[in-house]
Amino acid sequence: CHDHKFDPLAQSEYYGLFAFFNQTPVEGGGGDPQSAPNLAAPTAEQKPLLAAAEQTLAEKNATVERRASELSPGQAEWERGAAAAETAWTRLTPTTLKAEHQTLVAQADGLILASGENPTNDTYTITAPVELDRLTGIQLEAQRHPSMTAGGLARSDSGNFVLTEIEIILHRPDAEPQLLKFTDAKASFSQGGFSPLFTFDGNAASGWAVYDGGFVNRDHRAVWRVEPVAAGPGSYLTITLRHDSIHKSHNLGYFRLSVSAAEAPGLSDRLQLAPEVATALAVAAERRTPEQAGRIRAAFLESDSNYRQAAGEQKQAKDALDSLQKQIAKVMVMADRPEPRKTFVLSRGIYSQPQQEVTAGTPAALVPLPADAPHNRLGLARWLVSPQQPLVARVTVNRLWQQVFGIGLVKTVEDFGSQAEIPRYLDLLDFLAADFRDSGWDTKRLLRSIVTSRTYRQSSRFTGNTTQHDAAQHDPDNRWLARGARYRLPSWMLRDQALAAAGLLVRRQGGPPVRGYQPAGVWEEATFGNKRYEQEHGEALYRRSLYTFWRRIVGPTEFFDNASRQTCTVKLVRTNTPLQALLTLNDTTFVEAARALAQRVLSTDAEPAARLDEVFRRLLARRASEAERTILLAGLERSRAEFRADPKAALALLAVGESPRDEKLEPAEHAAWTALALAVLNFDETLSKE
């Protein structure tokens, strides 16, 4: 907000540090949880699958490129033939469109789209003028459309259609309407037993269809030859297309009709050319734009059935790879703007009140940036870990020391500034920091050095002798390190410990976050009913606490001593409040863990004392003392009597949690041992790091 009289960090220097990070192109609008740039982080299981998918795609790419190379010498001849073939057909422009159930809408280039209701069967009636002097054939092009099933040819289950009957009537100004007679029919592809030859046989059970074993993913066309007939000016056609198949909704969805006056109109192995391709073909090769040349090249390759098959397999391989990549977690990384963003000191920290402009820089009280260092995040990162800069190594070592001993060498782990505590063992902190830096920032090596030291391996147990008593009086927080560390375990560790001792903990690594047990209404209250918590089941209930889902504004209720995560917090919170006991004695996870642990010890034929020792061994890594054994076994007898007198209470206790219960165990006995295990789970020794 402002400068402080005795603070070596000035306000302008704070915003100078901020300037290093004020260059991201992200404006804070949100919307993309994986904003670019990002790094893929596949799991061990996903890596071989990803490699195999990439290899498959590479092979399919090579096949497509090889076939394209083989076809190249024939492109010039294909272009001449394609240009000639285009002139053989004249597209009809409908004047009226009618369907019994659907809505037929005329589109550009003579195309017709069926929409609205999706009936089981339908019949289309289309009228269109004829500009030719005579007719020898009619062509129907069935094309794919996004509104059809899987982008296919119809709104059926597979995108397939069945044209059961076609009828064409020619109307001339000076003659009676004439029903045209078909002489032959061919198609680019026909489903087995469904040929266009069966579309003028009067049988509704037959017709033309194009199903080939999956979703229809390519266009098709058919040509019907008719007995030549004169047309002339003023003539028009009435074309009836019937879809009376027993297969539901197999009605043409997107199609076009053309007529021909050629002697023998028919199909070639070429696909019908798109208007833009036909236009490009009309341009001399040396005058075509790169875009026109590209369109012609694509149409030429698509005209080859082997190329189409290879391209289809290539697309399948690419889709499979894309699908796998979407499943892989991605980690966002920062990027800088091409043009630097200006940074200003903000009056009292208010973003709308900028003052003087500042540039990226480090505080004057610390080691300066090298003269040749770039003033960006990379330069800052190199400065932070440089041999001349001890701050990062000291802070990191101090935080790791806090994790191990419960309190840092510098107690104020969140503050190494002018108001920080001066460490009692400064030489030790500096030695560990320098060793950590010189080892290449080897965290595992640092932790091994700490936990194998004589200081860490001291006992934390009090025997009552005078020396220990005096030390505890003068050093209650163990800042002199005269004894082993002893402190209350964090809530997440208590949960994992209980699950592990009970044999419930799922040790599998990796995977998405999970939603375990939580009291009803917690999310709803915090979000005014906008978010509802949906508990998962199965192994999700027993995964390590690391995988528990967090909502930032309301953390998991079982983690009673964790930071809120709404702000950065590095100082641990230790608690020994009644709230902790309320949870460890009543929370579903702890009660279920006690039940599962009781079930484990009851599955043996051991005596009660041996079973009690097994409970202690799993929770405390020792056997029960004689005094403990006497007290707990007496309590076990009382619980057993109470549960036998109240069987419903026993069953209610044993019903806590979703893990299965061994129904062979006598309920009162199982409930009594559950109560005993729950008591040991709540020993101060169990809840503390000793």
Quickly list its features:
7-stranded antiparallel β-sheet, 690 residues, 20 strands, alpha+beta, 5-stranded antiparallel β-sheet, elongated, single chain
What does this entry look like structurally?
It contains 20 helices and 20 strands. The chain is an alpha+beta fold and 690 residues long. The model has no long low-confidence stretch (mean pLDDT 90). Helix 15 crosses helix 16.
Précis, in short:
It contains 20 helices and 20 strands. The chain is of the alpha+beta class.
- Major sheet details: 7 strands, antiparallel
Q: Classify the secondary structure makeup into a structural class.
A: alpha+beta
Task: Report the count of strand segments.
Answer: 20
- β-strand percent reads 5-15%
Secondary-structure map:
Layout: H1 11-21, E1 38-40, H2 46-71, H3 75-86, E2 90-91, E3 96-99, E4 103-106, E5 112-115, E6 122-129, E7 134-142, E8 162-163, E9 165-171, E10 178-179, E11 182-187, E12 208-209, E13 220-230, E14 236-243, E15 254-260, H4 275-281, H5 290-302, H6 305-327, E16 330-332, E17 343-346, E18 354-358, H7 377-384, H8 391-405, H9 426-438, H10 443-451, H11 466-474, E19 487-488, H12 491-502, H13 522-526, H14 578-586, H15 588-602, H16 608-620, H17 626-645, H18 647-654, H19 667-681, H20 684-687, E20 688-689
Antiparallel strand pairs: 1-16, 2-15, 3-6, 4-5, 5-15, 6-14, 7-13, 7-15, 8-12, 9-10, 9-14, 11-13, 17-18, 19-20
Helix pairs in contact: 2-6, 4-5, 8-9, 8-10, 12-15, 14-15, 15-16, 15-19, 17-19, 18-19
